């Protein structure tokens, strides 16, 4: 695997994914009983945005200014967006940044760890050796956090069902492999077999509409529980940008989270637009019963 999220941390796709993740965690915490958070592709847990402009051999255009950078100084953030931005800001401050622009950005494991209660646990997986080593260093000796340098798609086999009988799973792969969508579908199928009530969030890039529609059909064919997809695009279909947006499938969504995420994505569509023609939308793949 060659993917390094370092270069994409804090971009518009991260904003949607992480703002939604914060809402999902908050929704899971409406109940006092703890839950297990599983992150199948954890990355290194934290990112230095100042390093995002430096590739292995060439300078790069950092992506965070068009993502978290757009929100950093705004005073009109809706509550759901403000909650996410404050989590990022708090992490940035704890890491010592005193500049007026963000420097240190938390990955999904760090965001969830900051929100976790004593009764909530994290199980983090990362396959890429360097990223896994950095992840272990990041969370070494923290209680309630388990780390494995392993293929995240196998995570649910050993983790579900957890003693808590409640789980929130984030599947956020790099989409480098040709069979990535197929592996997601198989993992979801196995995870729901082991814990039918698990809440599972699947991140995907919007590059080819046809592939996403096939992905949806394959998911639906697995006899899913209630499931919706929320999408955000920052440019129109004809724009040359390769990744025009991203989406999140949510399986077994917490009660009324669809309303929260639809409003969140709609606001972000305007705030993060890079060209005319973008937008946001939510569709139910399997309706609530």
How would you sum up this structure, described in words?
This protein is an alpha/beta fold and 289 residues long. It has one domain: Vaccinia Virus protein VP39 (Rossmann fold), CATH 3.40.50. 36% of the residues lie in helices and 19% in strands. The chain contains nine helices and ten strands. It has helices spanning 12-28, 68-71, 79-94, 108-115, 129-139, 155-159, 180-194, 209-220, 257-271; strands spanning 36-39, 46-48, 104-106, 121-125, 145-148, 167-171, 199-206, 227-233, 245-251, 279-286. An eight-stranded mixed sheet has the order 5-4-1-6-7-9-8-10, sandwiched between helices. The chain has a two-stranded antiparallel sheet with strand order 2-3. Helix 1 (12-28) crosses helix 3 (79-94), helix 1 packs parallel to helix 4 (108-115) and helix 1 runs antiparallel to helix 9 (257-271). It is globular and about 45 Å long. The mean pLDDT is 94.
Count of DSSP strands: 10
What is the fold named in CATH at topology level?
Rossmann fold
Write the CATH homologous superfamily: Vaccinia Virus protein VP39
**How much of the polypeptide forms β-strand, as a percent range?**
15-25%
How far the N terminus sits from the C terminus, by CA atoms, comes to 40 Å
Known CATH architecture: 3-Layer(aba) Sandwich
Mean pLDDT: 94
Helix content: 25-40%
How would you write the strand order of the largest sheet? 5-4-1-6-7-9-8-10
State the CATH class. Answer: Alpha Beta
Largest sheet: 8 strands, mixed
């Amino acid at each position: 695997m060659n993917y390094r999220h370092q270069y994409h941390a804090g971009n518009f796709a991260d904003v949607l994914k992480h703002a939604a993740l914060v809402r999902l965690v908050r929704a899971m915490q409406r109940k006092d009983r703890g839950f297990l958070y599983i992150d199948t592709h954890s990355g290194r847990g934290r990112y230095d945005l100042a390093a995002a402009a430096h590739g292995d051999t060439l300078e790069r255009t950092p992506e965070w200014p068009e993502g978290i950078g757009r929100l950093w100084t705004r005073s009109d953030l809706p509550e759901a967006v403000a909650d996410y931005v404050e989590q990022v800001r708090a992490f940035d401050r704890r890491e010592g940044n005193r500049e007026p622009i963000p420097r240190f950005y938390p990955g999904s494991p760090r965001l969830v760890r900051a929100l976790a209660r004593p009764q909530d646990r994290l199980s983090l997986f990362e396959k890429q050796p360097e990223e896994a080593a950095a992840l272990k260093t990041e969370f070494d000796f923290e209680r309630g956090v388990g780390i494995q340098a392993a293929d995240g798609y196998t995570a649910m086999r050993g983790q579900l069902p957890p003693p808590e009988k409640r789980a929130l799973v984030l599947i956020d792969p790099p989409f480098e492999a040709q069979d990535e969508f197929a592996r997601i579908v198989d993992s979801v199928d196995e995870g729901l077999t082991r814990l039918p009530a698990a809440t599972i969030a699947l991140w995907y890039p919007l590059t080819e509409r046809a592939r996403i529609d096939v992905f949806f059909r394959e998911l639906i064919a697995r006899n899913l529980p209630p499931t919706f997809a929320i999408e955000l695009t920052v440019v129109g279909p004809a724009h040359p940008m390769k990744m025009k947006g991203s989406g999140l499938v949510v399986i077994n969504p917490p009660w009324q989270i669809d309303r929260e995420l639809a409003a969140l994505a709609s606001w972000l569509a305007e705030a993060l637009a890079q060209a005319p023609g973008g937008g946001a939308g939510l569709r139910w793949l399997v309706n609530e019963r």
